User: Fold this.
Amino acid sequence: MQLPHDLIGSGPRKVMVLHGWLGDSTSFGPIRPYLDTETFGYAFVDYRGYGEARDTPGEYTVGEAAQDVLDTAEALGWDRFSLIGHSMGGMVAQHVLLAAAERVEALVGISPVPASGVPFDEQGWQLFSGAAEAPEQRRAIIDLTTGNRLPAAWLDAMVDRSVGRTDKAAFRRYLDSWSGTDIHDRVEGSTTPVLVLAGAHDPALSPEVMKDTWLQWYSRAELEVFTDAGHYAPDEVPLALVSHCEGFLRR
Assistant:
């Protein structure tokens, strides 16, 4: 399956950009005007159940999404490419890496889900699992993971986009997949260059979690922390995000 996608830039260095659980490809809108389109060519994709693929049927798993990403790269004629994955997109990117390591030049994770998945306590699971049907729970998640510090109008806009551009059933099934999947023993020791970007105000996928997971399992991983961001760096610190991502990928 070739995923719906926006192509930005015509540079020789190709990059697949993979969105998170609560947003679609448009969640990267704040960074798009500042990309180096002469060096890089970016494809911003929508998984099944999201955005322009909202009505596309599927199993709605991170493994399926990874295969769709590879199919899309094939359709674009991209033999080699890098991956940028936000949140759930970080887990999808790792599945792409496992399926086709020889095609992946580098991987950037933005507050990325670790290869071990995410364990929840009972209260946390109720909050996340109920978010498919309850917009107010999506809002609570976004507020929590950005440190309860951002404007109400921004929270409302994030929820409106999330609800409007996701299929409820797909949204709920992806949660089971990205939270309950554990592939860390399969990625451990990987020599693919990895940059992990974490927000200091994200209590869920914090810098400490990144150190205990990603940096333990990838031999060429490095960590950068945004001191003025939580989980949503594309919105919170778009210029710094572009600078870090492209600086790393140029290397």
In short: The chain is about 40% helix and 15% strand. The chain has a mean pLDDT of 98.
